[in-house]
Amino acid sequence: MEVERIISQDDSAAVEWTWTDTDKKTGATARVQDAIVLRVAGGKLIYWREYVDCTAEHSGGTAPPGAADRTGAR
Fold this sequence. Notes:
Number of strands: 5
Oligomer: single chain
Shape: elongated
Distance between the termini: 23 Å
Radius of gyration: 16 Å
CATH class: Alpha Beta
Number of helices: 0
Structural class: mainly beta
Helix content: under 10%
CATH architecture: Roll
CATH topology: Nuclear Transport Factor 2, Chain: A
Strand content: over 45%
């Protein structure tokens, strides 16, 4: 997991991050890009919205759920 950016202002924050996972059998790598926006009030999390990039550039033209792109075994 690699955190790309953290933005914080008053009671709100946003985090962009990338998760990379490699299949040990095939060597294929899946990368998912994600952004989370949250808000805190009274020391409690009161809002959470998550945005996942599920687009892909690979031969089939269709992204598997949660895969931003694939590299490796094609």
